[in-house]
Prior knowledge:
Elements: H1 19-34, E1 40-45, E2 50-55, E3 64-68, E4 79-82, E5 88-92, H2 95-110
Antiparallel strand pairs: 1-2, 2-3, 3-4, 4-5
Pfam families: DUF2794
Organism: Pseudooctadecabacter jejudonensis
Protein name: DUF2794 domain-containing protein
Amino acid sequence: MNAPTPFPGKQHAQVAFHRTELNMILSLYGRFVAAGEWRDYGISHLKDVAVFSVFRRTAEHPMYRIEKRPALRLKQGQYVVLGMEGQILKRGNDLRQVLRVLERKLIRAVD
């Protein structure tokens, strides 16, 4: 059987989280679930951005969004954590450093 012929023109690759990035995010997510703070998540891989959304309940707006935008890596940093209202909580090129803004909230939630 012949392989399908790709559609002519530019192929648009999706931005996705790498396995190591996802491990860091899911590790943090698991700690918040264990603390009873977070209940659900969603992942979107789009043309320009990959988004990990965190929900307190399934049917509401995300509490936080962790985004990866490779086009911004030389400018503002490719990773960003956004709050519920869209405010930027932390931005940078090191995902571990960017996620620390949420880890501080976990420490307060456990106390």
